[in-house]
Amino acid sequence: MTGSIRLPGLALLMLAGSLLVLGLLVLAPLGVVFSEAFAKGLPSYLAAFRDPDGGAAIRLTLLVAAISVPLNAAFGLAAAWAIAKFEFRGKAALLALIDLPFSMSPVVSGLVWVLLFGAQGWFGTFVSDHGLKIMFSTTGLVLATITVTLPFVARELIPLMQDQGTDEEAAAVTLGAGGFTVFRRITLPNVKWALLYGVLLCNARAMGEFGAVSVVSGHIRGLTNTLPLHIEALYNDYDFVGAFAAASLLASLGLVTLAAKSLLEWRFADELAAVRRR
Amino acid sequence: MPAGTATLGPPLSGPPPARTARHRRRAVLPGFGLSLGLTLAFLSAVVLLPLCALALRPWELGPAGIVRSLTEPRVLASLRLSFGLSVLAAAVNAPLGLLIAWTLTRFRFPGRRLIDALVDLPFALPTAVAGIALTALYAPTGPFGALAAKIGIKTAYSPLGIFIALLFIGLPFVVRQIEPVLQDFDSDVEEAARTLGASDLQRFVRVILPALAPALVGGVSLAFARGVGEYGSVIFIAGNMPMKSEIAPLMIVTRLEQYDYAGAAAIGLVMVAISFGALAAVNAVQLRLAKLGRA
Description:
The structure holds 2 protein chains of 2 kinds. By secondary structure, chain A is an all-alpha fold. Chain A has 14 helices and no strands. Chain B is globular and about 65 Å long. In chain B, α5 (73-106) runs antiparallel to α12 (200-229), α11 (187-195) runs antiparallel to α12 (200-229) and α12 (200-229) packs antiparallel against α15 (261-294).
């Protein structure tokens, strides 16, 4: 790892180059979010949060994440249990299918739900005949968010549980423990940090998702605009302080997630699949 | 070489051969039916059924209709733009990502961990936030945009703006793929090359680069796949002028607004198919490179 530095000048040059690229490309956008949000001083920044549509957008974002993240976490646990603890045919195909949303455009992840439940969707008339509303409602936002964030928890848990094997669980079962006891007392403690890691990333993406929810939302202010969509609406109205003030909330969420993620990586490197692979 | 073992698939924790393992696991641990059932039910509802709609709805237009729908000049231009700029941005990210990964793994300096965490910022920043922030920077009134305008270059509201956004969004993929390989790289091999009189450049080109190649290709392809579908961080800076700076995902949105579901699905299907084909091809190349690197 060390010892390859024969030219300190070159090392310094490479460090300077890296800092330049990261500073201009990555750090500058983060900085501009906050500088634009406070461009007209603290009072205007705070005033931006008194907008009732903004409050509604924050509540909707929290609601959508509160529904979709636990569902994806439960899915991740079930998928990891089946895939890591048992052998069965078609496992590779199942893994590919779980990964698929990662390689799909978010817009396509929203589009597929319109194709099913939109006005001219396969089940569009069925849904409207029964007085249900899926498009332009919280349900649609949740469905699109779930599709986009589906792989996060599962991809974190599967490799770790595969590495851990089945010995501990098998021993517990031999000693007479029931399935749920084994899961709760052995598997869950073994994967808790990885689960938290996956949930953190899943939540950040769920709250920040734009493309997929933009397709299904209908952009009704105060009703179906999540926080990212609200930012777009404000920006298009040339309310830059308002847009960047709202954006500063989401940027802070991103920073907190990043800090928590890095902390988990440093403290529990052995218990995270993402770091073990390195 | 550690770099090679990574491609050999997940390590099995127990030594028994596959058949006995299967037999024993089935017999001992409960919950296979329940967990697989839940997994398949959920996956079918939120991925499989929606994908069926994506795969089938374009055919409402008939084969000729699909071709006509996809060869509309505006659609063709948007597909060319999305795929072309994604390839270009991913390619430029290769040397940038290599530089950063090298600096972070080979040198020790104060604040290294902080900078390492910083690399993930494009992942962590929601795309709409990144989109308006990049636009504020590169618009003619923004600090970077004004600078570029002085030398007569238009950044925001042009393909160059889209390129910058794709560069931003793709960088972490390349760095994160290369980093572990550089970290695990067997310094004995490098040492041997040096003892045998290889220069720094020779060691880099003949020893390190071949071992890095699979990870580099992998990172570039992930950045490409992400770039093709990227929407939030691009849509604000692009300007969205038909035939000039309109990306393919935006064409899907436009068609949905016109209730042209089949036409929107056709574009979506093409995007998924090309991305998937590209990733499959890259996988094959990666395997070849891994073999060459080990030989």
